[in-house]
Amino acid sequence: MTEERAHQQARVYAVRALSELDALGLPPTPPNFTVWFAAHAGNLPDLARQIERLKAAGPIDQGTADSLYARFIAEQPERANLAETSARMLATLNGVRDAVGAAGDDAERYGQTLQTFGDSPLEDTEQMRRRLDAVMAETRAMAEANKALQERLDRSAKEIDSLRENLVTLKREASHDALTGLANRKAFDRTLAEHLHQLRHKPGFLCLVMLDVDHFKAFNDTHGHQMGDQVLKLVGHTLKTSIDAASLAARYGGEEFAVILPDRPLARAREVAEAIRRAVAEKNLTNRRTGKTLGRITLSAGVAEYILGETGEQMIARADKALYVAKAQGRNRVVAQNELDPAHLTG
């Protein structure tokens, strides 16, 4: 999605949030706006579903709205920036509304002055002069009001552009791991669930690769956490450059990574995993600050293919079992589910 498209969608979400709050009879306070903006933006699908359930059950009062904010926004620290940005956007929109309203009042007063000038008969030149002075004064006031409105709209446009950029950034931060730049666990869970949902309606191939950095704790203990972070970044970069746009690479947790590979049978997915493993193993690590050679790191990987009707948890568990076997067989290798002993496929 282009940045301009993302900006347009942010504006649409803001308008929808305000419209729904108005329809529900709820005030557009910053907390309320944040809740409904997040629901319409699709950032929090559980929140959106809860709102729909509440609407179906009856009117939503302010107490219920407060509970939604507390549960889905306030209790989640990573959403604090979203709440702050939503509040700023709401304040800007309210400022525009007030400025336009004030300009409307000025225009109405100006129209009344012109109406008075035309409706009342003139008795002498002095009376005409006074009326012309009044019209001129109102004209100058109207010009100043329009100038002030234009300046206010210009400032608001800049502020809204800034907020749009913030929302694009926040959306990315909410779905990406800060260290590696890969998708985070939440984005992984959401993407896997979406693929499984599609496959239940339109069968096809889907594979999952679970990867783990071998002996990572020992590396951290020996070379320090900063060098450990560099290793994770290297793995993240290798994953990103080893897959196509339809696939997703994620940091699953700690030194464990995951790759979702749609439209690939097991054999091809294993080839991708092997290419990743080989690319990482071929890199010789060096401490750039000291010039000291740190040796090489390796990955172990397990590959699973989707079985119709299974859950995401079952698929992940099977890939994890293959990963466990790869570790047990000596590490720095790839094991696919068809290479497992049947005993590893149960329980």
DSSP strand tally: 7
Summarize the helix and strand pattern as letters: HHHHHHHEHHEEHEEEHE
Helical residues, percent = 55-70%
Proportion of strand residues: 5-15%
Cα distance spanning the termini: 42 Å
| Overall geometry | elongated
Number of helices: 11
Largest sheet: 5 strands, mixed
The mean pLDDT is: 80
Radius of gyration: 30 Å
Please state the structural category: alpha+beta
Please, how many domains? 2
How are the strands of the biggest sheet laid out side by side? Answer: 2-3-1-6-7
What does it look like?
InterPro entries: Diguanylate_Cyclase (IPR050469), GGDEF_dom (IPR000160), Nucleotide_cyclase (IPR029787), Rev_trsase/Diguanyl_cyclase (IPR043128). One of its GO terms (biological process) is negative regulation of bacterial-type flagellum-dependent cell motility. Its EC number is 2.7.7.65. Keywords: Coiled coil. It is an enzyme of class 2 (transferase). This protein is of the alpha+beta class and 347 residues long. It has 2 domains: 175 residues, no CATH class; 161 residues, Alpha-Beta Plaits. Helix content is 65%, strand content 11%. It contains 11 helices and 7 strands. It has a 5-stranded mixed sheet with strand order 2-3-1-6-7, with helices on both faces. The chain has a two-stranded antiparallel ribbon with strand order 4-5. A hairpin with a 2-residue loop joins strand 2 and strand 3. Helix 2 crosses helix 4. The two termini are 42 Å apart. The model has no long low-confidence stretch (mean pLDDT 80).
